[in-house]
Amino acid sequence: MCQESEWNVQSWTSFSPRWDQPVLHPHDEENQESACSGRKRKQSIKKRAKRAKASKTRWYHPDYLELGFVVEPGSEVCPRPLCLVCSQSLSNDAMKPSKLSRHFQAKHSDLSSKSVEYFQRLRENVLQGFRDEDSAITRKLLYASYEIALSIAQNKKPFNIGETLIKPCLVNACKILFGEVEAARVKRIPLSARTIHRRILTMSEDVERQVLRLIEKSSFFSIQLDESTDVSNRAILLCFVRFVEGQSVREDFLCALELPGRTTSSACFEALGSYFSEHGIDWKKCVGICTDGAANMVGRKTGLVARVKQVAHPELISSHCLIHREQLVAKPMSRELHEVMTTVVSIINHVRHKAMCSRLFKSLCEEMGSEYESLLLHADVRWLSRGRMLSRFFALREEIGVFLGQQKHPDADKLYDEDWIVRVAYLVDIFSQLNKLNLSLQGASQDIFTSRGKMDAFQRKIALWRSRLAEESFDMFPTCGDYVDEKHMDPGMILLCIQTHLQSLQNTFARYFPPGEDPRIGRLWIVDPFRVSLDECDLSMQEKESLIELSSDCALKLKFDAGISRAEFWLSIKEEYSMLSQNAMKILILFSTTYLCEKTFSAMTAIKTRYRSRLDVRTALRLGVSTLEPNIEELTISQSEQEQSSH
């Protein structure tokens, strides 16, 4: 409590100035005109005396406790008396015995005989209530700080945005909507960059503990791995995990491990093994691993997969990402189509390479009323790049022809060559189809049956397209077909080129997806246990007997046909058909792609930019991509208790 250093009797009485000694500063008297009357001078003195009296800050004295008053918590700068009996708060001007006594006698005269010990006990109770209320407010402020930090991490924003943008906006909005008091409370939310970093670290550790507990409860799990570098050239190994949780399958971010030196298979395995050992993850429960097919991952003897097989479940199944294989299938082209693609990329680079060329091309597109005003660059590492780049190029082919003619570019004549343009049109169509396949393989919670089924469907489509081309039909390639009709071209000019390319696609598909290595062989009973032939099932005699019993259960058939997922069905019967359920789930939790890792690398580039190149991205990355939410309520309570115990 604040107290005046020197106690004097004058603070107990009201201020009453003497007229022969006016309370004025010397420089104030200079403003008085000698010609003014004595009456005006006295009025001026009275006004200044009142202002001096009003501006005086009165301080609390311990003797005021005998009248039932203490300083109201939070008003120490300009103390306000608080009545312990009725909790009424008075102004600072009332901080004097006469006014406090008047309040006490008027409202609490029945307590006049109480001793000072009574008011001391009452003070402790009242102040404890204020402390409890302040603790509750502090806890809410802490909770709000965690929530805002979580939003910052999930939206991949810099940590200082809380202090530089979010808090000022919140304070101003509260001031406008609710007033200064509420705005002052909002201003107390801790949102500094260091605080946000601590909050994100705490929540990230909480989410990691949740994932590890779920993995421990699951009978087995599978992982997907991929390695890349961040903006500061640090090598990062990402790992996602898929496991059984209750009556469903969950997949989540497991870890991001920094590789200090070379990204060899031994370095990757050592980093991953250290993490598993440190967090008590049992390798023997790992039944599947999916990688991007790089040499350090799939080397026959010393690759990462080979090393994992030595310590993991004996029936571990390894797979090469289907999306990556689809990209490898689409890459080879005949010489003439390859030359067309190379020329297209060269023209686009010419237009986009210089800022002046880009501006001139944009102006030309505006003058010609084009739908688009710029070309798209091609990047091999982007899955959908070629298809989108070719579509935009074909849509702007007339504008590009005019522009290259103005620039006297050596490839300008190609934009008026129908044989060349019709090949571009075919590339637009075929890569559009490949992009659709690629997009269908992306996404979470895809099992090997669904993904491999889509690859089979595309191969069958190629066979259908070839048969339709033999009839000179371009229904499946609308861009190419429309151009042939528009220019009244002879279809034979392009048919041979297309047939050759489709044949090449079929051969490449067969090489990257050999029928003998199909993981579905002998396991189609998982997809439909009620219609599969026992001869096609890779099961023991006991398991086949269980399958016969299962397939004869009409109630289970109705349940299976009700539309629930495969995983939900097999998990729902794990008590009655434990062997079949376990074998089915070992296959259903396998990853078919490294899509989650690729998606997370994109998130990593958004979090760790060249302006934040020193940031340790791993904690914020977990909150940005994890499907689990941190237990903010528990974290808030835990931190509040720690702070209280430390005081």
Automatic annotation (TrEMBL):
Pfam families: Dimer_Tnp_hAT. InterPro entries: HATC_C_dom, RNaseH-like_sf. Residues 18-53 are annotated as: Disordered. Residues 567-621 form the HAT C-terminal dimerisation domain. Residues 38-53 have a biased composition (Basic residues). GO terms for molecular function: protein dimerization activity. This is SCAN domain-containing protein 3-like. It comes from Galendromus occidentalis. The gene is LOC100901380.
